[in-house]
Amino acid sequence: MEKQLFRAAAGLPAAMADRWWPHVDAAWREFAISTPARQAAWIAQVGHESGGFVFTRELWGPTAAQQRYEGRLDLGNTQSGDGKRFMGRGLIQITGRANYRACGTALGVNLESNPVLLQGDELAARSAGWFWRWKGLNALADAGDFVGLTRRINGGTNGLADRQVRWERARRALGIQ
């Protein structure tokens, strides 16, 4: 895929496509997000999670849901302050101490000691690619199971309508029926 096609598929202005394209392209190559179906699904899901490739850090209130990050053993948040320290970061919003540790190990970066690193463009894109592979999302994208993708990323169907609008735009741009 070329940058202009990525721009159209993601619905980005030129400056945003210029910013993200090298990192997205590298992440796709690294994590085998290599077909139009996979790329369209990735663009849609990551586009939703990042507010259109704008945010690499979760907007922090804290909301009631964010307050529940504290002490969540399933996220590895075992120390006081872990909920906020390991808030969602990266294009797909990696959340929780355990996920930062796993992602950092895979990417060769100590994210547990420096979680803010996931806010940088390169690691934001790579972490989204790593998460995609870790969660087996290529198989769901290949099968066209977009609701299944959403559930595996989000745990439910939060934002499904926006995700589907983004998916349809990406599919049209990439010539997928």
Description:
The protein has 177 residues and is mostly helical. The chain folds into 2 domains: 3-55 and 120-174, no CATH class; 64-119, Endochitinase, domain 2 (2-Layer Sandwich), CATH 3.30.20. Helices cover 58% and strands 0% of the residues. The protein has helices at residues 3-10, 14-30, 36-49, 64-67, 82-85, 97-107, 121-134, 137-143, 146-154, 160-174. Helix 1 crosses helix 2. The longest helix has 17 residues, at 14-30. It is globular. The model has no long low-confidence stretch (mean pLDDT 97). Residues 43-133 form the Glycoside hydrolase family 19 catalytic domain. This is Chitinase. GO terms for molecular function: chitinase activity.
| Beta content | under 5%
How many H/I helical runs? 10
User: What share of the residues lie within helices?
Assistant: 55-70%
Radius of gyration: 16 Å
N-C termini distance:
17 Å
The outline comes out as globular
Helix and strand pattern: HHHHHHHHHH
Biggest sheet overview = none
- Average pLDDT number: 97
Strand tally: 0
Structural class, from helix and strand content?
mainly alpha
Low-confidence stretches: none
Tally of discrete structural domains: 2
Oligomer: single chain
GO molecular function: chitinase activity
Pfam families: Glyco_hydro_19
InterPro entries: Cell_Wall_Dynamics_Protein, Glyco_hydro_19_cat, Lysozyme-like_dom_sf
Domain Glycoside hydrolase family 19 catalytic: 43-133
